[in-house]
Amino acid sequence: ACCGAGFGMALAADIRLVTPEAKMNVAMYKIGTTGGDMSISYFLPRLVGTSVAAEMMMTGRFMYGPRAVQTNLASELFPNQAEMEKGARQLVKEMLAGSPD
User: For position 4, what pLDDT does the model report?
Assistant: First the structure.
């Protein structure tokens, strides 16, 4: 799970990979603070659009891996943790291959 401040830090990442079990939410709603904490109110609407961001920030609902990819919150959905780690390593190799020696 990626909630609250951890969710805010994940939103700041350039690339987000998930599994179907991945879940994230704006936990601040549940304790009476705002989604503005940790820049969630800045990043979330820019990634998923105003409507989905408002839904998450006003309800505290969880979003799971498949919907994260559908709403552009994550770039790729992997079937399980092991496959995601393998995919992440491959992604890093591709990025490094584009770097000058």
Answer: 77
The three-class DSSP label of residue 72 is coil
Task: Give the Å distances, CA to CA, from 61 to 4, 6, 26, 55, 95.
Answer: 12, 16, 7, 8, 34
As given in the structure block, the two tokens for residue 84 are 């995601």
Give 3-state DSSP helix, strand, coil % of the chain, rounded to 5: 55, 10, 35
- Rounded distance, CA 28 to CA 34, Å? 6
CB 29 within 8 A of CB 35: yes
Whether the pLDDT of residue 78 is over 90: the answer is yes
Q: Are 4 and 30 in contact (CB under 8 A)?
A: no
Over residues 68-72, the mean pLDDT reads 96
- What confidence score (pLDDT) does residue 17 get? 97
Res 35: pLDDT: 53
Nearest 5°: phi and psi at 3?
A: -130, 155
CA angle 49, 35, 28 (to 5 degrees): 130
